[in-house]
Amino acid sequence: MQAPHRCLLLLLQLLLLSGTWADMEGSFTIRLLQTSTFQNTSFVDTEGLGLLEDIELGSLDKHTWNIHFHQPWVRPALPRSDWDTIENMIKIYLQKFNHLINEGAMQKDVPYPFVAQCVAGCEIYANRTSRAFAYVGYNGQDFLSFNIYNATWLLSQDTNLSRYVQAVLQNYTAFSELVDVLFNDTCIDDMEMLLHYGKAALERQELPMATVFARTPSPEQLLLVCRVTGFYPRPISVAWLRDGQEVPPGPALNTSAVLPNADLTYQLRSILAVAPRDGHSYACRVQHRSLGTRSLLIPWGNSEVVLIAGLGAGLLAAVAVAAITALWVWRRRKHQQMDESESRNSILSKGA
Length: 352
Fold this sequence. Notes:
Blueprint: H1 4-23, E1 28-40, E2 43-52, E3 55-60, E4 67-69, H2 80-107, E5 114-124, E6 130-138, E7 141-147, E8 152-155, H3 160-171, H4 173-197, H5 199-202, E9 209-218, E10 221-231, E11 237-242, E12 245-246, E13 253-255, E14 259-260, E15 266-274, E16 282-287, E17 296-300, H6 303-351
Antiparallel strand pairs: 1-2, 1-5, 2-3, 3-4, 5-6, 6-7, 7-8, 9-10, 10-15, 11-12, 11-16, 13-15, 14-15, 16-17
Helix pairs in contact: 1-4, 2-3, 2-4
């Protein structure tokens, strides 16, 4: 139970920060990612990562299970005593988790090595409601999920192993209570503080950069490619317009998933298959939070248009060169005529 002064301090902080939360739109999620590789009954290699949206808050030292902070504002967001409590709860959780998984593996003769993964955390919404969640995976497959509301474990796959682990966890009430406190109480209670200290990082915006080019896999097909990169945050809308109308989803339209860049921005590609010289005009439209109410529109000109534009520019250049040359020849001839006239006048004056 929290000390009275700690509860009062938390209440005052939440009241002071309520304006910060009101100023921020949408929902926010904290996720703790755990990957435990069970090499044998005595050695487990565990990695952990904490995320606020897509911002890395910190990670676990795989040898000591201590927290390493990845952002300068994360540690000051909570008192040192709170971080010590969270760190101790995580260590107790991992010890119990490893023991239960190893016990189940030995009971069911599960071959080593194998991998257990967990995703857990909490989400808080704009109306200040919240939810917590916890999922367990086995060798890359969904295995179990934890119902926070009634503290029960649900099967994600129905196998002898999953039913056995479910029964063990359900009977081990102390472990379920630890998961409930860690993700349903601690996570949500500390969310406001993290949102306040991480406000600048969460509201960061980077403008998208977009280019349109074409590929020709066959004479009968033209692939228009719209590459959008360098944007943040992640949500974005990319669409193709044909003669000003949005192209609906279909087999001719293929848009990739949003992928991360090395500089903590994102990228994607949208490809539209069209028939060469089909007579339509195409443009790629990009909508993103950093653009506000505006849209980025990148038109595609077919090869004939580009070719005509190129010939026009070349013709203008040729005309300009011809005009300059003609002017130079005219001036040179005029000067020659003037020189010849002056020479004749000089000869006539001498003869006189």
